[in-house]
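Hi team, as promised in this morning's meeting, here are the two structures we talked about. I've kept the exact order from the run log so nobody has to guess. The first one is mostly here for context; it's the second one we should focus on when we meet again. Sequence first, then the predicted C-alpha cells.
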Amino acid sequence: MIEFTGKIQSVRFYSEATCYIVCVVKVEDKEIIMTGNIANYTDYDTYVFRGEYTTHPKYGQQFAFSEYEVLATSEKEDLVHFFSSSLFPGIGKIMGQAIVDTLGENCVELIKEDIKVLDSVDSMNDLKAQMIQKVLLEQQNDYEVMRFFMKSGVSVKNIGVIQSFYKEKTLQILENNPYQLIDDIEGIGFKTIDQLAYKVGIAFDDQRRVKALIVHVIKELCFKTGSTYVTLSMIQKELVRFLTAFDFQLMDEYLLELIENGKIVEKQGKYYEYALYDAECTIAKFIGDLVSRNDLYYNDEAPEYLEMLEKQNEIEYAVKQKEAIYAFLQSPAMILTGGPGTGKSTIVKAIIEIYKKLYPNHSVALLAPTGKAAKRLSELTNIEAQTIHRLLKWDLDANKFGMNQKNPISQHVLIIDEASMVDCLLLANLLKASKHVIKILFIGDFHQLPSVSPGNVLHDLMDGIVPTVYLEEIFRQESGSGIVDLCDQIIHQDIRDLSFTKEYKDVHFYPCIGSDVVHNVSFLVEKAMEQGYSMHEIQVLSPMYQGDGGINELNKVLQDVMNPCDDWSASYQVGSRTYRVGDKILQLKNRPDDDVYNGDIGILTQIMKKGEYEVKQDTLVVDFEGRLVTYTSNDFATISHAYCMSIHKSQGSEFKIVILVLLSNHYIMLKRNIVYTAISRAKNHLFLLGEEKSYIRAIHNIHDNARVTTLKEQFEVSCSSSPYDFMD
C-alpha cells in the first residue's frame, strides 16, 4: 500500500450522500489526483492517504485511497485558519498568517488587551484592526472550543449557534455525548458530528454513536428511496457499511431506547424516522377532517357565473370540465389530474374567477413546489402564484418555517399546482400552518415523477382518500399535437416502436449510438439558435450525469455552442467546470432569501475576482429574471451549467424545444415516469435522440418498487380522531 502526506488543493467532485471525492492533493512539490471517501474535508488540514494507483478509462492515472487520517495541526496553523475564517471578513490567509507570525501564539489575548499591537502587522489598516478587535471582544465563545470545532469541519456559523445554545456547557456536552448536537442544533448532521466524535475518542461501536447512526441510516435510506419507512433488515444491511464489527444482538435494545425517546417510530415491523411518521399522521388527520366536513354548502349562483364566464371568454366548457369546476365548489378537498393538453389550466382559471365572485372575502393562495412552476402558474392564470416555501417564510439558516401552527397563514383556499412534486414533509408543514384553510385543490399529473424527497403524496391521496377528477380528453388547439398524443400513448402503453413520430411535425426521432449523441445534439441546438430560439427556449435533458450522453459531457460541449469563448468575456474556473459571462446557470439548492429555488435557471452576468474588484472574495453574479444573486466560494457547489439538465430538475418547467437523450447505458433510469416527465416538458418541438430500444423499454417499464409509504393506512387510522389535535 502506497502512502502520501499532503493537503487538498482543489476539489473536482464531491458527493455529500456518499462522501466520495475527486480532488487534487499537493504532495511535496507535485500534485496528485486522488479519489476515495472522506467526510468533512478541509483545505487546511494535512492528511495521510493510503491506497494504490489506478487507471481511469477516461481520466487516466489516479490515486485511489482506501484509508486516511488527519495529522494534528499546530497552534499557529489553527490560529491562521481562525483569523482567515468568515468571522473576520476581508482578512484571508495571507494577513491571518502575518498576524500570527508577528504576534505569536498568544495573539488573541494581545489584540483584546491593546489594538495597537496590530500596527506592526504588514498591510494592516485602522478599519481592519478595529474590526478584528471588535469581533474578538464581542465573541463570547471560548477560542479553544472554536479551534476544536473548526478542526472538525464545523462551519463558523454553526459554531456560534452551538455555543449560544450550550454556553459554558459546550465542552461538557462535547466530551459526554457530541451526538446530542444532532437533536439540539438545526443544520448539524450525523456526518459532521461523527468526525468530531472521532476526535474526542468515541469508538466506532460506542452505543452513543450506534444509536445516532441507526437514526441516520433510517433517514438516509428514506431520502434515497423516497420511502417513509424502512425494515429491520434494511437497517442492518446499511449499518454494516459503517460498522466493521457490531453485535447485532444489541439492536433490539438500542431500537427500544430510540423508540422510547421518540427518535424513531415502529409500527408492525416498519421503522420510521419520527419526522416522517409525524408528517404522514399530520397529512392524514388534516385531510381526513377536511373531506368529512359538512359545514360547506353549494352556492346556487355557480351555474350562472359559469355561463357568464363562457360568454365573456367566448368559450364553451366541456362536460368533464364543468364537472371539475362544480366538484371543486362542492368539495372541501379535490384533486384535478390529467396529462398535457387536457385542460387543467383552463379549469383552474375558471375555478378561481367563479370562486372569487361567490366568496369575495375569501383569500386564495396559488402555490407550487418550485419557483419555475409558480411562475408558469402565474402566467397561465394571470394571478400571482408563489412557492410553498415562500408562503411559509422558510428560514434557510435556521431550516425552519416562520408560518406554523402557532403562526398560521391567513388564506382560506389553497390551490397547489404540480402536486406530484410535493413531498410529505413539505405538505405536512403547509397543513400545520393552515388553521384557517377550508378548501384545497391539488393539481397534478400522477404519471410524472414523484417528489424527490420521501413520500408519494398525490398518488396516495388519489387512492380513495380525496375526490379526484381525471381529465383524459385532449382540448383546445393542442389537439393533434404529436407531443400531447405521445404523452397519451405512453400513459396507455400504446407504443411498440417510434416510427409513428414521422406523422407529426413537432416530434422527431433521431436514432444514434452514444458516441454520436454529442455531435447530433450540438447540430440540433445550432439549427434552433439559427432559427431565432434563445438558450432559455431550448433545453437538453438527460437522465444521468456521467458517461456518453450524460449531463456533464453535454454541458461542456453545449457551452461552446450556446456561449462560445471569446477574447473579451471573463471566465472563472471552479474544479473541472469553467464559467463564462453569459452562461446558462442552474440553481441546485433553495435560497428563499433571494427568492431563488432549486431548479431555477438564470444567466451569469458578472465575474468579479478579488483584487480586480472591490470584493472580499471571488464572486459570480447570476440574473434570475431580474433577481441578481451573488455567489462566493462557499456557494459555488450550489450552481451548475444548465445547457443540459436532469429530468428531475426539469419538473415544473416548460420549454419551446426539448431535446431528450436516452441510451442503453442509462438503463437504471429507463422508467416510464422519467421519460413521460421529460416529454411533457416540451411545448412546441420534441427531439428524441438515442436508441429506440431504450425508449421502448422505458415506456413499458412501469415498475418502481423502491418507494413505499403508509399515508393511506394513517388516513384510515385517523378517521376516528380530530386532525386539529396537533394544533395549539
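And here is the second protein, the one for discussion:
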Amino acid sequence: MSMVTSGTPVRVDAVVAGPEVLVPELLGVQARLTPGATALVHGGAVLTYAELHERADRLARYLIARGVGPEDLVAVGLRRSAELVVAFLAVLKAGAAYLPVDLDNPRDRLAHMLEDSRPALLVTSGGGAGLGAAAPVVLLDDPDTVRALEALPAHPVTDGERRTPLDADHPAYVIYTSGSTGRPKGVVVTHRALAAYLGDARALYPSAAGSALLHSSVAFDMTVTTLYAPLLHGGAVRIAALEEPGGQQASLLKVTPSHMALLDTLPDGAAPTGQLVVGGEQLLSEVVDTFRRRNPGVTVINEYGPTEAAVGCCVHVLAPEDPLTPGTAVPIGRPTSTTRLHVLDDLLRPVAPGTPGELYIAGTQLARGYLGRPALTAERFVADPYGPPGSRMYRTGDLVREGDDGVLEYLGRLDGQIKIRGYRVELGEIETALLRHPDVGRAAVTVHREPSGEVHLVAYAVPAAGIDVLDERLLRAHLARTLPDYMVPTAFLTLDALPLNANGKLDTAALPRPKFTARTAYRAPETPEQELLCSLFAQFTQAPKVGVDDDFFALGGTSLGAAQVVGRARRHGLRLSLQDVLEHRTVLRLTTNDSRPPHHPTH
C-alpha cells in the first residue's frame, strides 16, 4: 500500500497474509500449535493455550445458546482478570462484538453507555451486577452458570454453530470515546479492521512472542495490542499493575507517555526487555531519552492511531542506536501495511511536503462508524477520492506535516479535541456537562499546557442569572457524577462574562491564566500515611502546604510528578499506583476505603 500526501505515493512494506483470515481462527491456529504453552498469567493462576481456549469455547457456546451471534453486542463488565480475557475471546468466537465496560467509570456514564448501546447481554460477576443494564445479565461466578459451562463441549466453535457464519464486516468490538455533543459515542470496529491491525502487530512487535503486560483500562483500545499480539505469537499475557508486574520481566510493553514517566521511578524489572510501544499522546524526545538512559537496549515504537482506525495505523520505530532531536516531538512515522494516509488541505487536495495539512486515514483498518449515529458517521467517514470506487477515509482533525523522507510529524488538533493521559477528550462534552448545572449560565473549557507538554483542563464559568458565586466544590462534584476523573478540569475560574472577539466567538487568548493553588479549606492529615502523601504532594507541586482535600493537579501537579509521588510512596511501603493518583487526586480519596477500592495488583 502507499501513503498519499503530496501526490507522490510512498511505498510501505506489506505483510502478506494470504486469504483473509479472522482473529478467532488465527487465535485457534496458535492454540493448536502451542497447546501446552503458557497463555495467561494472573497472580498465582496460569492458563495454557489449551485451557484458555477450552474455557472460551465453552462460554462461547453458552452465549450462542442465549441467542448471541454476529451483529450482536455483548457488554463485558469485569476487572482485569483471567475471566475478562476468557469473556472477550468467547464473544469473538460466538461471532458477536464485545463492549468493554470500565467499572471504575461513574455509574451515570456506564448507564448511558449501556442504554445507548443496547447490548444483547451483559457478562459480569457479582461485583458488577448493579450496573442497571436493561439487558439480561450473565453472572460468571454464579454456581448455576459455572455448572452450565462445565457441561458444555470445549472443542473449537465453528461457523455451523453460530447463528450465521462470521464475516469480516461483522463488528468485533465497540469502544466508547468522548463526544463533542455532550455524550460519549461508540466506535464500531470490524473483524476485518482488527485482523488487519493485528497482522501488522505480529510483524512489527516480534517481542510479543515472549510476554506482554496487560495493565491499562480495558475500555482503552491500547489493551488490544498487549492482549491479542502475544496470543497470536505463542507468547504469554501477564495481567498485573504496571507498578507490580510480578514474576518474569515482560518483553513487550505498551504505555502512554504518562506511564513512561512512572517507569523511570520503578525498579528496572518494570521496563520491557524488547520493545516499548507508546501511544495515546504526543511523545517528546526528552521522555524517550530519559527512558533510554536506564534501558539502552530497548526499541521504542511511537504508534499513532485513533479508535476509528483500529488502535494504531501509523508507526515510527526508534532502534536503540537511532538519534533523537532534543526539544522536539517524536514523529508518528509511516502507515501500516493496509493503511493509506492522506495529508490534505481544506479542499481535499494533497499538500506539498513540509506544508501542514489535515490527516485523513483510509484502508482496511477503518472502523464501520459510530454506533447508532449515521449522521456523525457520514460527517467523519467521507468518500476517498484517491482510493478505489466506494472507499472511505476518516477525517482525523489532526494537523500533520510530511517530511521529505515521507515520515509524518504530528502538529496538533484542528478542533476542540485533546489527548490527556492517553484518553481522547472532547472539550465540548465537558462544557455541556458543566452547563447542566443550574448555577452555570455560560461555560468554556480550554487547555493549559506546561512547557513539559503536560496538559491541564481549565473550566471557565459565568454564573446563571440570580447567582452571585459559583462553588467550585459543587461544580467538581457535579462533573464527577457523569464524567471520568481524567475529564474533570484541574482548575475552575468564575468570570462575569466570557471574552469574545470581533466575530462573536470565544477569545481564548483573553481568558485569564489559571493559578494552581489549593482551593479547599485546609484539613490536616490524621494518619502517618496521610502525612507522607501530603508531604509528597507538596514536594512535587511546590505547594507550601497541602491538606488531605487538596487536588494534586489543581495544585499544578503533572503526570511526571504523580509518577514521582508513586515511586517515593512505594519506597515507604505504600501500595499505590499511578492510576490511583491520576483518578483519585486527593490524599483523602487515596487513603479512605470508602472512596477508593482496596488496591490489588490487577486494579
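Starting points for discussion:
Residues 1-19, 594-603 have pLDDT under 50 and may be disordered.
Residues 170 and 190 are 5 Å apart (CA to CA).
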